[in-house]
């Protein structure tokens, strides 16, 4: 069996626990007896998670684009694990927008995604390596099917390709120390990342900021078809 | 024949022309009659290139990690092409260090490479798209064999994986407008990027900044073997 034995006292740190996969995983591992340390972006997310989990689950507020917020969370994990090291790190925090034709993007639209999905994931991981090595723990990085294929404009695919490369290198670099590294490549699931409302609102924002020349070169029909396309894609996602 | 006909008046903008591939390409395209606009990082690089090329080759100083430097270069290209648009953009500028086990890295070591090889390349490309669309031009991005495999720690592989994903998306997004997008995936060639001296000096810098615990967990022998490995890798590169 692939089940982990002797869960008591094993600490797992999960990022992005406000909703979606991270939230579900935090609840599930808490029920199974792990000591879950759940990083949430918002106080609201933290409160709601604490309200429906055991007393052993702890939360910490974490914005992965802010180095001092990361340092604070790492210090919290250090104190919670109290010399035992970290059994598991699940890098789940991520965002999907902006997602649109490359032509509609500015460089900051790429930074917005890469700072969370790639640089944030790397910084958290680097700073938790000493605790992971101590416990001969494991890292699970949430990549995506879009870490293998590149089919929507913007930083999302790039960030996930980067996660795949980083994870593969980390896996080899950590093997000697007994730290395992895995990736998960979800397809299309209904989470906050695939919210039709968020994707459509962001498409509209990008469309409105285009120069008249670029907007005309695509045309209104293209824009409306994009909205229809997003709805179609999202409706195809599974729960 | 795959040769381009009627080269006269065709403008090609190449980044990273101080040395290596960019320098060789600028000279070769100049000899063939293209109007080359060669972006150099340094005044020295620019002077040396101008000294051995025709009067039609122009240089511009460009640091791809600096948005205002990019804006300046884009304005220069706009004026040089004078309403004709840009026939070709070759995104060649890049760096390879720091390159070492993940454990030896800090987050800034990743930023150092990604800012040049990925974000710089994207920002240049986005800002030149209007001129490229005007001329139904082409983009050639210098990726790497390490854009397909991930085998050295640090940001290099990640940056090249990102270039592969970005290029593939851009290729599809630009097809309608007649702009072609290609990548080049060099193996190991002797250029500034594979300078044994630079790679070794940087390994030493990283080694010296490790905590005593991490340094001991690798051991002096590992470090010396890394230096030998770098020499071996570089000696295997071709001219």
Summary of the model, kept short:
The structure is a homodimer of 239-residue chains. With 239 residues, the first copy, chain A, is an alpha/beta fold.
In CATH terms, what is the architecture of chain A? 3-Layer(aba) Sandwich
CATH superfamily of chain A: NAD(P)-binding Rossmann-like Domain
Question: What ranges of chain A have pLDDT less than 50 throughout 5 or more consecutive residues?
Answer: none
Assembly form of the protein: homodimer
Report the helical percentage of chain A: 40-55%
What's the number of helices of chain A?
Answer: 8
Biggest interface, chains and residues, is:
A-B, 39 and 39 residues
Q: Which topology of chain A does CATH recognise?
A: Rossmann fold
Whole-number radius of gyration of chain A? 19 Å
Elements of chain A, N to C (H/E): EHEHEHEHEHEHHH
Q: Please state roughly what percent of the residues of chain A sit in beta strands, choosing from under 5%, 5-15%, 15-25%, 25-35%, 35-45% or over 45%.
A: 5-15%
- Biggest β-sheet: strands ordered side by side in the sheet of chain A: 3-2-1-4-5-6
Number of domains of chain A: 1
Mean pLDDT of chain A: 93
Query: Given this structure, which CATH class of chain A is correct?
Result: Alpha Beta
Based on Cα principal axes, name the global outline of chain A. Answer: elongated
End-to-end CA span of chain A: 27 Å
Biggest pleated-sheet summary of chain A: 6 strands, parallel
Family (chains A, B): Belongs to the short-chain dehydrogenases/reductases (SDR) family.
Keywords (chains A, B): Oxidoreductase
Pfam family, one (chains A, B): adh_short
InterPro entries (chains A, B): NAD(P)-bd_dom_sf, SDR_fam
């Amino acid at each position: 069996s692939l089940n982990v034995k002797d869960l008591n006292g094993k600490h797992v740190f999960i990022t992005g626990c406000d909703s979606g996969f991270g939230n579900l995983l935090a609840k599930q591992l808490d029920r199974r007896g792990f000591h879950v340390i759940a990083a949430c972006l918002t106080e609201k997310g933290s409160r709601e998670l604490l309200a429906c989990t055991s007393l052993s689950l702890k939360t910490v507020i974490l914005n992965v684009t802010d180095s001092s917020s990361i340092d604070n969370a790492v210090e919290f994990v250090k104190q919670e694990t109290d010399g035992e090291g970290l059994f598991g790190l699940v890098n789940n925090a991520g965002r999907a927008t902006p997602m649109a034709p490359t032509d509609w993007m500015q460089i900051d639209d790429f930074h917005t995604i890469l700072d969370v999905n790639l640089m944030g994931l790397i910084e958290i991981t680097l700073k938790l390596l000493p605790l992971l090595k101590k416990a001969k723990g494991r890292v699970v990085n949430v990549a995506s099917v879009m870490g293998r294929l590149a089919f929507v404009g913007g930083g999302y695919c790039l960030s996930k390709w980067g996660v795949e490369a980083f994870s593969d290198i980390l896996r080899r670099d950590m093997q000697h120390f007994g730290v395992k590294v895995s990736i998960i490549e979800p397809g299309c699931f209904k989470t906050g990342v695939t919210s039709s409302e968020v994707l459509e609102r962001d498409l509209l924002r990008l469309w409105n900021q285009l120069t008249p020349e670029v907007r005309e070169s695509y045309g209104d029909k293209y824009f409306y078809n994009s909205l229809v396309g997003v709805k179609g894609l999202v409706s195809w996602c599974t729960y």
